[in-house]
């Protein structure tokens, strides 16, 4: 039974061929007014979930509730859900005005009222004056905005967006991220957003559901997701990550001792691997490891610089540390670190809190 | 101030050095195109030009009776002409007799006015016995028709080198003796019916093809690859089969003792001794042509539908359009270029279709092209066949023009 969640997936399974489950026992609650992103690699089932919500796919098992109503039997055109498609799906034979007026016309809204709504929706995406243009005459970004305006023009309570920014170039994508975020904040519509781009997800969402292998791996706010990933998939997928494989040999309070495959022992934070003898992958964010630590940290080791990669505002070092030749370090570009060269040995330290012992890979 | 000439770095004018640099490529392109160009010129443009020319060329009699027509120039065409015309006739016909080339002229003149055949034949038989001088009297003695002005007027009417009489015949019109355009005699009016039937058949075949092809093309474009490939082969297999084989198999199916008739009798729709005729009439033409021309409708439709993103229909539905509304407002308008291309293709092919109506059409199902073939092969009136062919060509070009005005030819998509 559903209890007051705006959207609720309840034990939803989906299989296309009867042999493989694309979505496995999915449970997901979305509150009204939230911006929830489904994030995951391709084939992880996130788009399938969106399509089931929109009504273009039927769940093989389980129920989906919208506003406390089971929606499995409601055809897509009666669900009243706005949708922005990956390739915008603007009707190429209609002008911008006709595109926006389409959902209003099929709802038999009188013309003067429809005109007002179209105008309002276009001003929301700052495209007034483009009514008479054909979609082909618009740039990618403009088409994208028309698609967003069209999905909002009939005042749906829920808008689904299926990788809407995938086709735009990087700068445009960033500005569109803010634009969509602001529209969401202004009108308070519930948005379910699908993307495989983690920065996009981190920038825009209230909550992110990380999908992999047909399951939600973690559902939490962006900072939570980044700072406290619950398993090694999430840690790998969101942001950059350094890993060490090993085995827990001792647990005391909120710290544990992990013996790495190279034989060296480090202190870590037991998250998944909590008891002695557990195999584990230890995850550490690059920015949490410090070169030449001044005060004593839980872990202090020496590494050899393998490669220096210049990135403009910061420099990345690839270091051979504790048997991991791909250990990445980020250092800000300031003038006092010009002595960093390939082949040099440096001291690296980090705290056990930042070093999370997760499930083994 | 005149514009300064831009020089390339070695001092020659830029335009010139560009030409020089491009010359080799241009030459290569011309050489690559040359075989096709020659091919088209020889077996396509030249025959069509010849056909157009033949349909209006009427120089044969003028060439064969040169002296007669020179003499006739002075004749007013009212009463009987004077001696010089008959003298010219005597000399011209003597030459024709000596060369034994009078066959064509008899056919042509008899077409102009019946009765010429026996007139010329008799004259030629007796022409050696004529004495010099006073040919007019002697000619009238050979055959009294030489004394009737209408025959000589008819002869004079053949004088112009160019004539559109064949085109008039093609629409059941003709010249009378005074060169007024009048309706063909009632029992000879067949071409208007034939044209109307041809257009009618082409139109309905196009409609049937459209109705049958649209769902197939849609399935082809939307089914998963492994089914759509199979379906595609089902569409193309008949396309690859010989036209003659397909038409003959329709003959097997449609004949009175054939399986379709058996089925109709078995279902009780017709009595066994009163089997419907499905062949050698318009029904046979419709059925066989629709099946044969179907791929020409399916393929352009498919190629257009393939480019329509499925998310457009989804967008239509998610915006609140029922499946029907989404189809009518979104999907259908986007397929119009394919419908146009397919219809144009099927209609143009159907309007000139020959083998199928010839085999399954019978008398009431034969089309204009069958008549053209008849005049090419049996009546040997090539000029008339050419005229009919030209009319067909002009008709097709007219359809093309109308289509261009209505839909725009650049909207067409064949693949």
Secondary structure blueprint with pairings:
The complex is a heterodimer of chains A (361) and B (415).
Chain A: E1 7-14, E2 23-30, E3 35-39, H1 46-54, E4 61-66, E5 69-70, H2 76-79, E6 81-84, H3 96-106, H4 111-124, H5 140-152, E7 158-162, H6 170-187, E8 190-195, H7 198-204, E9 207-212, E10 215-220, H8 222-227, H9 232-237, E11 242-252, E12 255-260, E13 265-270, E14 279-284, E15 290-291, E16 299-310, E17 314-321, E18 324-332, E19 345-350, E20 355-358
Parallel strand pairs in A: 3-8, 3-9, 6-7, 7-8, 13-20
Antiparallel strand pairs in A: 1-2, 1-4, 4-5, 9-10, 11-12, 11-14, 12-13, 14-20, 15-19, 16-17, 16-19, 17-18
Chain B: H1 14-56, H2 60-64, H3 66-72, H4 83-99, H5 103-112, H6 116-126, H7 135-142, H8 149-157, H9 165-170, E1 173-175, E2 181-183, H10 191-222, H11 225-240, H12 243-254, H13 259-266, H14 282-307, H15 310-318, H16 323-351, H17 355-360, H18 368-377, H19 382-406
Antiparallel strand pairs in B: 1-2
What does this structure look like?
Chain A has 9 helices and 20 strands. Chain A has 361 residues and is of the alpha+beta class. In chain A, the strands form 4 sheets. Chain A has a 6-stranded mixed beta sheet with strand order 6-7-8-3-9-10, with helices on both faces. In chain A, α3 packs across α4, α3 runs parallel beside α5 (140-152) and α4 (111-124) packs across α5 (140-152). The radius of gyration of chain A is 24 Å and the shape is globular. Chain B contains 19 helices and 2 strands. In chain B, 27% of the residues are buried. Chain A binds chain B through residues 54-56, 75-83, 85-87, 89-93, 102-103, 106-107, 150-151, 154, 160, and chain B through 309, 311-312, 314-323, 325-326, 329-330, 333-334.
